[in-house]
Amino acid sequence: INQDDHRVTYHVDQSMDFQLKPTAKLNGAKDTSSRHVVPRNGMTSLLSWHNGNDCHMSNGMLYRDGRLTVPLDGMYFIYGQLEVSFDKHNNDNNTSGQYQVEMTKSNIFYGEHTLFRYSVPDVVFLSPATSSIDVCIASTVRLRAQDELYIRVSDTENLYNPANNFIGAYML
């Protein structure tokens, strides 16, 4: 076993080496009273994730203050899911008429960039039969070492059952 630069390489025999790649999955915290948010550019970062059952972080992935940090340059599959409810209020705080979820990356050297944004269509807000939906976001992106990934939303009041939410990433 050789561990250099967060890479774990196992030597099986003279002809075969394989590398364990960084991977992480965190669930939403059950205790919403501990969730702190920081509004920025009309979007609010989700800061409270839980590393417990059905979760993992391995091979150099780090978690701090709502952000997953990748240890190595490379292609990653990143994903998240939020359970969003529209019966708590009538979307009064969202002037665009749409609920927005975005995955953002930040790096102290390269700044902050929105990787992708999903807007829940207006029709969902108008449908009386719909009280909550799962918003799933995912993409394959090139990341640099020390890039931090996090989810931002247009309105935290619409989040429903935070324990069902999750964020994750793994190197391809």
Helical stretch count? Answer: 1
Helix content: under 10%
CATH class: Mainly Beta
Instruction: State the domain count.
Output: 1
CATH topology: Jelly Rolls
Structural class: mainly beta
What is the terminal separation in angstroms? 21 Å
- Let me know the number of strands: 16
Give the rounded overall mean pLDDT.
79
Large-scale geometry: globular
Give the name of the CATH architecture. Answer: Sandwich
Write the layout of secondary structure elements.
Layout: E1 2-4, E2 7-13, E3 16-20, E4 23-28, E5 37-40, E6 43-46, E7 49-50, E8 56-58, E9 62-64, E10 67-69, E11 74-85, E12 99-107, E13 111-120, H1 122-126, E14 132-143, E15 148-153, E16 166-171
Antiparallel strand pairs: 1-2, 2-3, 4-7, 4-8, 4-16, 5-6, 6-15, 9-10, 10-15, 11-14, 11-16, 12-13, 12-15
Commentary on this structure:
This protein has 172 residues and is mainly beta. The chain is built from 1 helix and 16 strands. The strands form 3 sheets. Strands 5, 6, 9, 10, 12, 13 and 15 form a 7-stranded antiparallel β-sheet that branches. The mean pLDDT is 79. Strand 1 (2-4) and strand 2 (7-13) form a beta hairpin. It is globular, with a radius of gyration of 18 Å. It has one domain: Jelly Rolls (Sandwich).
Structure in a nutshell:
With 172 residues, the chain is mainly β. It has 1 helix and 16 strands. The strands form 3 sheets. Strands 5, 6, 9, 10, 12, 13 and 15 form a 7-stranded antiparallel beta sheet that branches.
